[in-house]
Specification:
Layout (H helix, E strand, L loop, with lengths): L11 H12 L5 H5 L25 E6 L7 H10 L3 E7 L13 H13 L8 E3 L1
Length: about 130
């Protein structure tokens, strides 16, 4: 959650219970990530309806199966919503920032071909480590 997405609890007991519950499985980061943060002091955001995401605009989504920053599961969900997209899956890689950063010739070739022509692959491509 990001401050302003939804109201954060103000009751310190909620945070205390969450900290205690997380200690066993995550002794170092559990207490840190479950502790009270500045969001608890922000005003509740105004209610708004969830955003509906649909589009047939062409887009090439690049996703590594082991990406912990933007999960492959999330990329697959976005691909389903963006009906004009193709999903380039990089299998066996734990990393983020595949194109031009990771050094995978397959990824770079697929993305370069899309950027040069504007044409998406006919099917969802796969690259390996």
């Amino acid at each position: 959650m990001i401050c302003g997405d939804r109201a954060a609890p103000r009751d310190t007991e909620i945070y205390w219970r969450d900290i205690q519950r997380s200690r066993q499985q995550h002794p170092l980061f559990g207490p840190v990530t479950n502790n009270i943060d500045p969001c608890a002091f922000w005003p509740a955001p105004p209610h708004e309806s969830p955003t509906t995401v649909t589009s047939d605009a062409p887009a090439l989504i690049v996703s590594a199966t082991g990406d912990t920053a933007t999960t492959h599961r999330g990329s697959r969900a976005m691909h389903r919503l963006l009906t004009g997209s193709r999903l380039l899956t990089v299998r066996g890689v734990i990393g983020h920032g595949m194109y031009g950063e990771y050094g995978n010739a397959c990824v770079d070739a697929e993305v370069n071909a899309y950027l040069e022509s504007g044409d998406l692959p006919t099917e969802d491509p796969n690259c390996r480590k």
